[in-house]
Each structure stands twice: as structure tokens, then as C-alpha cells.
Amino acid sequence: MSERKVSWIVVILGLARAILHDRPMRRRILGRMLMVALGMMAIGLWLIAGWLSKNILWFTAWWGSCALLTSAVMIFALYDALAVIREEREKIDRE
Model-level pTM? Predict the structure, then answer.
């Protein structure tokens, strides 16, 4: 039996394809990403606000990561909406 090494890129693309094509999994991942983003914002606003205000680098890194995660959630939600529209159109066309 030959052993082939699978690159990380192939694994990541396969996992992404599996997540994007399965509506319940896509919704679970989207919900979890949203909870993490909201949690990060709450932590930044209430728990570590004083610590973040003391150093501009930590402040920028924290809120930049929050912005990136929030942007990723919005893009993923847009993809989900478009995928649902496509799936429903395909279902109507088959009937």
C-alpha cells in the first residue's frame, strides 16, 4: 500500500467544501463564530477595557481581530443567504 502525504491545503479545502455544502453545519459554524465575536466584544468592552486603553498596540490588535472576525461572520452570512436562495431555486426547478 502506498502512503501519500496529503498537504494541509487539500485538507483545508476539503473541510471548507464540506462545511459550505451542508446547510445545518454551515448554520452551526456561523452561530458559533457569531458567539465568539460577541464574546470578544463584550470582553473588550467590560473586562479588559482598562488594560486595552493603556497600550495602543494591544488596543489595535484586539479591536482589529474583533473587526476581522465580525467581517468574516458577515461574509459567511452573506454566503449562507445566497446559498439558500440557490438551493431553493434548484428545488423549484426540479419540481
Answer: 0.81
